[in-house]
Amino acid sequence: MAFIYPIHFSGTRWRVTDGDVYVSYLGSNLSGNGSPKKPYKTIQQAVNAALTGARIVIGTGTYTEAVNGQGKGCRLVADGTVLMSGTASATAFMNLGANGSLQDISISGYQAAVNGVVKELVGCSLRSPLTAFTGTLKQTLLLNTTLAGSAPVRLINCTLVGVSNPSATVIAHLESCHLGNTTNLQLNTPTLTYFDYCNQEAGSVIQINGTSYNTPTAVTAAFPAFQQFGVGVDPKFNRPTAGDYTLDPASALKTAGRRKTAIGAFAEAISWGTSQILSGGGSISAVTINASNFFELPVGIHTGIIETPVVDLGSVRPVRTLRLYADQVFDEATLGIVSTDPNLALPGAITVEMRYADTAAGIAGATYQPMIWDKVVSHDYKLAGNGQLSFGVRTMSYITTRCIQLRITLRGAGDPVLLAQENNDLLLQEDERQIQV
């Protein structure tokens, strides 16, 4: 299949600069030269060709490689939805170098996600362990995995769900992180700096240095070592008993924290992982979660609904864009949620609606309204669509509100709406053939 610029690289996020190297599953290691028009096919080939410290831009798709960074300290960034899907005997990225970094890349199925020294991971989603890791994690989701290493690690504005770390020498800095669903952390307390911690999932069992926090309102914001920042044990959340974990203007974390608010209350980047949706006050109907933590419809079920918890944005503000994390993925092609051919994926297979009100109590009386959403069907190394579908959603117009709730409807093979759509598509195709004849 010929690569046509600029379809595969959006151009809105990464501008072409001297030294950038481009990768696309539609590219070629033989005829490619690493440019946007002639990208390499594999990340490893891009690393081989890159200069020390170069930026490597990876196009949307699924990659199954084990990448050796050769200690070059390259910056690997995703231009779209990039899934690293490997085997239990391989490491996704190793030997990246002390200045190496990953951004907006999802990693699952590997024996290890990243092994060794690295500068930082930003905006990533990890379902594979971090082994012998040292560096910084920012705005990164760690889901049902482990964090292990031999040197201190910094976590800033991260979400940890079902995570454990076996050694207290690993985490030396935990700042503005959200913990949920059986997370067990051992912290290097003497060098710990300020953080705020929220356990918002009912039924979660959170442990920090052996101390359990088992209620939805269990919150701690400081260990004794934090007092140099003027942060006390009370973070002064607005209404924690009502699920409002935004910070009171008088909170010491308001000035000490970098994000100026609490995890889970960002108008520009609301995020729900699968565990939060199920245990955080949301509901599902006729939808299951498979072994990869992807939502799917069981065989024989045509329609399913996922209703998220009500989210309090924390203040009245204009909202235009809401983007779900990369782990908000739906499976599987074999069950008819999406076609194996990305060109035939039906736009009605997933619909997203939102309702909003000034108060959480007012949500129940609000009407769901349709949302515009962008979908990306990922591909395997044979260029076949693998049925996984990730997407972002945005409102149709600016709203000024405090509380929002999303409803996602999945329509599988046999659903009357999709059958009608398929029949209509066939009629249109027949009309086009008649016109051509």
Automatic annotation (TrEMBL):
UniProt-recorded name of the protein: DUF1565 domain-containing protein
InterPro entries, sorted: Pectin_lyas_fold (IPR012334), Pectin_lyase_fold/virulence (IPR011050)
